[in-house]
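From the methods appendix. Each design record in this collection lists the tokenized structure first, followed by the designed amino acid sequence. Records were kept in a plain field format so they could be parsed without special tools. The example shown here is representative of the layout used throughout.

RECORD:
FOLD TOKENS (385 positions):
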């Protein structure tokens, strides 16, 4: 595994880089000390869950640390944890990296002298998306998108960035089948149902019930806009779309589901996130210092107003058949989304063999664990049993 990880840093050159900030522009610079980095370690421990949590909650500095860190925590069984800095890859990029890692590992099993093909020059930018669409399509997508102005936020107790934690909840394969079948009966996806349940749970969490339409941000994978549905390399190609719903105590789950499903279907027709990312892409033509200043101003305003769309991100399904390490039997797998602090909040959704895992990463001086637990209780109670 150590050799596999090291070769992956060569196969995708960006993973062997460090992030360099310069007033004119920020850039990735290839490292010359890769063999000295702590990109892999096997640790034997009597408390694997505690060790995993400590590792997951530690930070990666993209300007100093390895962008990829992998640990195997061993007791009677092994727990493999793959950790990356979000700046270098999104959820879709993680799946691309996982495929690469499995492929190299399996090739090394057959040939210990296996050498990788270097993906050079790496094409990681948004041009690989934009080249398939006219300027008219990009503007149309932007004009038909709604929801950029925050209307609410997850209930918080401050804006602290300390006491990092995460909470996981699972939906069993049996209940997964029931939820999926229920969705098919209502011409809705599982994602539609989870978004609907999230809205209804958030409405119940609010001490003062909102009177206007409230918005959730839904990260979308721009790879879906490419004919092959694949990126040219490991990258961060995520955008966001927005869905909204108005609180009505008399509305049923089915009525809300119908509206959310209708919105999501319509958004797929306008190329999810295309226009938004086209604007952001052009904003980054300004120098790094100016862009960074503008972003910090936006963050300051969000903290002052204490409003930011809650984010519900479906990272997708971990394919057991496509991604494996030799003949090792994988019992379970899930993804833990990044840690957030107020007013930012996100919940991640991933699945493996029809088992759904919900993950919320947060700072306890922004959100109390009790509030997170209550939100997840309410969400699960909304879904068909």
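DESIGN:
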């Amino acid at each position: 595994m150590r050799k596999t990880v090291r070769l992956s840093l060569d196969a995708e050159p960006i993973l062997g880089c460090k992030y360099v900030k310069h007033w004119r522009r920020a850039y990735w610079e290839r490292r010359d000390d890769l063999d000295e980095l702590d990109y892999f370690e096997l640790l034997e421990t009597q408390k694997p869950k505690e060790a995993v949590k400590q590792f997951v909650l530690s930070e990666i500095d993209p300007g100093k640390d390895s962008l990829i860190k992998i640990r195997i925590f061993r007791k009677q069984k092994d727990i493999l944890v793959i950790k990356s800095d979000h700046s270098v890859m999104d959820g879709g990029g993680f799946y691309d990296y996982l495929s690469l890692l499995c492929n190299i590992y399996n090739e090394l099993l057959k040939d210990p002298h296996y050498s990788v093909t270097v993906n050079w020059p790496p094409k990681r930018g948004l041009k690989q998306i934009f080249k398939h669409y006219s300027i008219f399509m990009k503007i149309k997508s932007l004009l038909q998108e709604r929801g950029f102005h925050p209307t609410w936020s997850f209930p918080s107790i401050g804006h602290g960035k300390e006491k990092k934690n995460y909470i996981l909840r699972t939906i069993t394969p049996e209940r997964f089948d029931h939820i999926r079948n229920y969705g098919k009966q209502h011409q809705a996806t599982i994602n539609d149902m989870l978004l609907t349940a999230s809205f209804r749970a958030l409405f119940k969490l609010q001490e003062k019930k909102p009177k206007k339409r409230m918005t959730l941000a839904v990260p979308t994978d721009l790879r879906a806009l490419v004919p092959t549905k694949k990126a040219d390399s490991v990258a961060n190609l995520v955008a966001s779309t927005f869905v909204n719903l108005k609180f009505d105590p008399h509305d049923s789950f089915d009525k809300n589901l119908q509206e959310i499903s209708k919105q999501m279907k319509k958004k797929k027709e306008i190329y999810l996130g295309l226009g938004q990312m086209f604007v952001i892409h052009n904003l980054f033509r300004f120098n790094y210092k100016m862009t960074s200043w503008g972003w910090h101003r936006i963050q300051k305003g969000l903290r002052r107003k204490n409003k930011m769309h809650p984010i519900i991100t479906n990272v997708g399904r971990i394919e057991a058949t496509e991604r494996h390490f030799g003949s090792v039997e994988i019992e379970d797998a899930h993804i833990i989304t990044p840690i957030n602090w107020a007013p930012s909040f996100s919940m991640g959704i991933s699945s493996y063999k029809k088992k759904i895992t919900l993950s919320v990463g947060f700072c306890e001086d922004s959100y109390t664990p009790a509030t997170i637990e209550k939100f997840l209780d309410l969400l699960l109670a909304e879904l068909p049993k």
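APPENDIX NOTE: The mean pLDDT is 92.
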